[in-house]
Amino acid sequence: METETDLCIVVPAFDTLNLTPLGTSVLIAACRQRGFRVGAVYASVLMGARIGYELYETICGTLVRKQPGEYIFKPHAYPPETLARIPEGIEHPKMLDLIASVAPAVGPHLDEVVQAIAAKKPRIVGITNMFQQNMSAFAIARRVRAALPDALIVMGGANVTGVMAKALAPIFDCVDYFFDGEADVAFPDFCEAYLRRGERPAGRIVECAPLQNMADSPDADFSDFIAALREQQDAGRLPPELPGYVTYESSRGCWWGAKHHCIFCGLNQASMNFREKGSERVVRELTALDERWDGRPIRTADNIIPNSYFATVLPQLAAMPHPPKLFYEVKANLKEEQVALMRTAGVYSIQPGVESLSTPVLKLMRKGVSAHQNIMLLRSSAKHGMRAGWNLIYGFPGETQQNYRDMLAIFPALVHFRPPDGISEIMIDRFSPNFDDHERLGIPEIKPFEIYRGLYPSDAPLDEIAYHFDGIYTTEFLSDTALVKEFRDSVDHWKHLWLRAQRPLLLLETKASGGGVVIDTRPIAREALSVLSPAAVNALAQLERPRPREGLPEAVAEHLDFLLQRRYVIDHENLLLSVVVRRASAEPNRARVPMMAEASSL
Question: What is the pTM of this model?
Fold first, then answer.
């Protein structure tokens, strides 16, 4: 028997089931703190259970240029007369087959979702909307409007931010209000005004001021999501191990982006201003999550780890015998001692924002790091057994062919580092400098991804609805299609090397005498084992930071030819740098998360 609620939060498909839904769980907690009776319907869970987890997650993870999740719900998001004015949009046979295979499940799914919402008798229905959720969110809104004509229907999320909400509002009149921005306070305030005083905003767009103090954001309440998930797991419809990760937020905004906005980044539209939780709260919450979830990995949603945590949070976690397993996004200029601290503090995986190994290209991106700093970060991560996820992005106005030839020249020496997770030409995302200032940045014209044209009426303002855009331009590198192919093929080769049972190694084992042995299983290796004298080991150590040839100490210079011939040292952009991984001393906390095998073959 359902209990009547004041409001019901709805999470549409296609939102991954492998992560706890952070934003909605924070909103649920914020509304419950105000004394409201809050229900939740996870349409995401119901859809995953209906069509099968693997197929569901395949759709969630599909490239944004294809967006099958949107096309699956498109026929249900519009009235027939509007649908007739929308072109088909997708021509790829595999995508058409995928959509056709799921289509019969959509109608029954929506019936089930609306029935679950109606059973809670809410006065407000709040629907989240991000990534591939536009069509499913509006399909649910249409059905709820018919089933609960007196309920207020509101929507928030990344897909209805800024001008996008204003453009979508006239098309989808089934939604009463759109929340634009961080709604931690604005949404509970809205509920207070309507449910307790009968007041409603004058306009359909509710602009939310950015949260100024992270203390005003409550701990996420995942209980409704877990209950929905467990019901389907107990029935054998979803894998018992879900969710694979618990989500957590310790900060918002980006302290680097507030100073130098990376030109391709469209995040933090609401506020780039950096805000962080206090260290005592973070340690307490992380410890509680770790205990509650029995050591399940915790993925922080932060755009970048707060610098202050290296002096506060991380030392406290490192002092624990069994710290939580953490993922964080970081800036790539971390010092090796910072990487070591993070690893000891339980951070098993990072995303360091490595997007190129060319300093000139990184300058075009406004990344604030050099190629050598990126390589040093990959080396430190391998040494300390930390997974570093990174990508290569190309297509920046001003890049040259030589930038990429220089990278191709060093790739064979770096294959013992974890390869890029992906390689792609830049997308132009709304709210990024490449979008807002595209002409000045060398992109004369931009246009929405073609895939959007099959999702909205022909007279819809796609320039205001779309999030992803193509640029009409070229670069010296893009114009050389053979070089582009060579660059991409080289990365593919690197990735294939890491699919082997024995991944490439370049490891220095030092001896008590001061000498050492280098183990080298890269394809370019001259010898699998090389004995180094104490002087050669010292020369390598002197080159663990980039140095020009000029002015090298004689004790280093006399070993340079040997080190370069063996590709233990690279000469990149007129600077020398060791790429040899020194074996790290064992740390008790590293044993808890066996990422060493993932970061290298040590």
Answer: 0.94
